[in-house]
C-alpha cells in the first residue's frame, strides 16, 4: 500500500472512531409517525385483547439487549402491576447489501405480543 492510501485509511478509521463516540443509545419513547422520532416503540391493541409491541433501534445501538429492555418496559406500562405474558415472534437485525461491498449491519427490530394477566382477585370479606 502506498503512503497516501495508508494515510487515507488512517483518517477514515479515526473519523469512524470519532463519529462512533458521537453516537448514543436511542431514547425510550414512541416512534413518531411523522418521522421526527424514527426509533423507539409502537404498540397496537389486538382484537384478542393483547398488544402487539414493536421496537426499532438504530444500527449503532451498542447493546442489542436494549431492544428487549424497551419491549419489556412498554409491556409493563401497558399491563401495570398485573404483569404480562409475552410471545416474541420477530427478533432480527437487517443487513444492508451493496454490490461489491461487505454487508453492513442495519437496525434492530423486535416484535411480539403482550397479554396482560388478570388482576389478582381481592380476598373475600369474612
Describe, in plain words, how this protein is organized in 3D.
It contains two helices and four strands. The chain has helices at residues 3-22, 65-79, and strands spanning 40-45, 51-57, 84-96, 104-116. The radius of gyration is 21 Å and the shape is elongated. It starts with a helix and ends in a 10-residue tail after the last strand. The longest helix has 20 residues, at 3-22. Mean pLDDT is 81; it is low at 13-22. It is an alpha+beta fold and 126 residues long. The chain has a four-stranded antiparallel β-sheet with strand order 1-2-4-3, covered by helices on one side.
Task: Write out key terms for the chains shown.
alpha+beta; four-stranded antiparallel sheet; 31% strand
